[in-house]
Specification:
Blueprint (H helix, E strand, L loop, with lengths): L7 E4 L3 H11 L3 E8 L4 H7 L5 E8 L4 E9 L19 E4 L3 H10 L3 E2 L4 E4 L2 E7 L5 E7 L13
Parallel strand pairs: 1-4, 5-9
Antiparallel strand pairs: 2-3, 3-4, 6-8, 7-8, 8-9
Length: 156
């Protein structure tokens, strides 16, 4: 039986910078840290990559656990910080907000790069996409009357 989401994981080149961004700018809280040294057989098997070593930090908000990886071995490839959101794979992380204009202004002043100003995309739904320091896309969404992670799902 699947119970629901557990976490979202992001591989980053500088975990301390990622922690600072996600905690200071987006309100996440650091709740744990772990990792493994190169030659850890279980990690090699699970990741299907030999010889990795990593530092892992868990951050959380009220309804989301974020797992950050910084690989010290295994030769990760840098991502394109301008990767289009239409490319295959995970496209973005969405955070619910209550005052989109204020968050957009605050994060813009802090140096976050956005695709566009807050935009209404449906009745009661305003959104914008921005990027963390490594180019990962983060959506900020202010919505009314839409499925919320804080409420039980509606039956259609």
């Amino acid at each position: 039986m699947i119970l629901g989401a557990n976490h979202v994981a992001i591989s980053v080149p500088d975990i301390d910078r990622a922690i600072a961004f996600y905690c200071t700018q987006l309100g996440f809280e650091k709740v744990g840290e772990t990792g493994w040294p190169a030659g850890t057989e279980a990690a090699d098997r699970v990741l299907a990559v030999k010889g990795t070593a990593a530092r892992i930090v868990h951050l959380r908000t009220s309804n989301l656990l974020l797992e950050l990886f910084q690989f010290a071995a295994g030769s990760p490839t840098a991502q394109n910080p301008n990767r289009p959101v239409i490319d295959h794979g995970i496209t973005h992380l969405c955070l619910a907000v209550t005052d989109l204009d204020a968050e957009y202004a605050r994060l813009t002043a802090a140096g976050m790069r956005f695709h566009c100003p807050p935009t209404q995309v449906a009745p009661g739904v305003r959104t914008t996409y921005g990027r963390d320091p490594f180019g990962n896309v983060i959506e900020l969404e202010e919505s009314q009357g839409r499925v919320s992670p804080y409420e039980p799902p509606r039956i259609y």
